[in-house]
Amino acid sequence: MTTITVCDASGATHVVECDDGVTVMEALRPLDLGVAGDCEGSVACATCHVWVEGDWLARTGEPADPEADMLDCAFHVRPNSRLSCRIVVTPELDGLQVTVPA
Ligand code: FES
């Protein structure tokens, strides 16, 4: 299990235990925190957009195509934006902090 911290669109913080091997989108979608994951991870909706906080972008990596192209269609994109369906939970991400854009 890997623990990530999520700040939802209302500003509330949630600590979430995730199974390793799932995507961050898959871990967050059932919790109704604002990560919809409408395309179920096929990089076609951007409803799983999150901001990766602090230094964590160095560990999650930067978006590559087609993720970068999809982010061009998203709202509130920042340099630390990622699609959470493209971030696989691993023990190395224990403590990851993400924010769901409003
Ligand atoms: S779930 Fe649709 S782009 Fe991530």
Can you walk me through this structure?
- With 102 residues, this protein is an alpha+beta fold.
- It has one domain (2-99): Beta-grasp domain (Ubiquitin-like (UB roll)), CATH 3.10.20.30.
- 14% of the residues lie in helices and 22% in strands.
- The chain has helices at residues 24-28, 57-60, 67-71; strands at residues 2-7, 13-18, 49-52, 81-83, 97-99.
- It has a five-stranded mixed sheet with strand order 2-1-5-3-4.
- It is globular.
- The model has no long low-confidence stretch (mean pLDDT 97).
- Bound molecules: FE2/S2 (inorganic) cluster (FES).
- FE2/S2 (inorganic) cluster binds at residues 25, 37-39, 41, 43-48, 70, 83, 85.
Compact summary:
The protein is α+β, with helices and mostly antiparallel strands and 102 residues long. The protein contains three helices and five strands.
